[in-house]
Amino acid sequence: MGEVVEFLSYNNGFSQGHYETKHMIIEKESHENDDDSWFEEEIDVDLKWSFALNRVLHKGTSEYQDIALLDTKRFGKVLVIDGKMQSAEIDEFIYHECLIHPALLCHPNPKTMFIMGGGEGSAAREAMRHKSIDKVVMCDIDQEVVDFCRKHLTANHEAFHNMKLDLVINDAKAELEERQEKYDIIVGDLADPVEGGPCYQLYTKSFYQNILKPKLNKDGIFVTQAGPAGVFTHTEVFSSIYNTIKQVFKYVRAYTAHVPSFADTWGWVIASDQPLGIEAGKMDKKIADRIDGELLYLNGPSFVASTILNKTIAKTLKNERHVYTEDNARFIPGQGVAYRV
After folding, report:
1. Which end of the chain has fewer CB atoms < 10 Å from its terminal CB, N or C?
2. Is-contact 173 188, C-beta < 8 A?
3. Predicted TM-score of the model (pTM)
4. Phi and psi for 171 in degrees, rounded to 5?
5. What residues have CB less than 8 Å from 64, skipping those under 6 apart?
6. Residue 134 annotated in active site
7. How far is CA 261 from the centre of its chain?
8. Where do the H-state alpha helices sit in the chain?
9. Annotated catalytic residue: which of 66, 82, 171, 189?
10. What confidence category does residue 82 fall into, taking pLDDT thresholds of 50, 70 and 90?
11. Distance between alpha carbon 83 and the CA centroid of its chain, in Å?
12. Which residue did the predictor score with more confidence, 195 or 76?
């Protein structure tokens, strides 16, 4: 979703942008000062979001996607895939606490988890804070993403070395199909669906129904990130992902939170064939009893509040009819490597 741009400074105070769409490029000549290098993300065709860089830690194109790890002035280290911000050091706790803890807290006694994606290690880190968890399988398709996140994201060093973590490099769809075991929690910590990207098939009804759901235990819970969920962006993929999951599971709830580095409200969908117990007081007690350390963002009342959607979004979700399929997918702005090459 967007591009990386090099801004070259001119004497008149304006900037000229250099664009590269096949590979993500950020270059800074030796005579430039730090204020002249920026990352720019396309939010929509007529809207962009940019912020200043200290330096580029990594840039390149793997077999599957464009990758950049940037050191930014405002948000610290940020991971960018296919031009789309995935995670920022300063506020990733909002995204990952919302992704991981609600499902674990709604489950009566979670022991096992399968994470689709999650190569940076933050989702696994949060999961392994739960005292009941015995095993976390983290399955990411891209070895290069995992390797440089393990090297550069110091907050997750302990997670990568935790004996409870089973790190697998493979396509999550193929891995789930091949495995015989079932899980208490399955998590979709995937990149957003962009045309030509590696992930969009993991948002389809056929995948949820035929591959994912059979790998859940009886009380199992599925949760996935579901893309932008702002007033003007929730129709891109959020409402469709929600409606697709409703076709497969009996109990489904959408919830949202604002993530500053994403420049938008973000959405998640949690689902199960068992009722989801969402009560503020009980969730606070479970947080105190089950989780090592203090959460920075999530508590019982804030999670309950996050499930109460504004009128515009609630109406869209109620009326959404689109079901995500391989032949009828929706994408957020941007293109993956496979589409461009």
Report:
1. C
2. no
3. 0.88
4. -70, 125
5. 141, 142, 198, 336, 337, 338
6. no
7. 13
8. 92-106, 122-127, 143-152, 157-160, 172-178, 205-207, 238-246, 280-290, 300-306, 311-319, 337-340
9. 189
10. confident
11. 14
12. 76
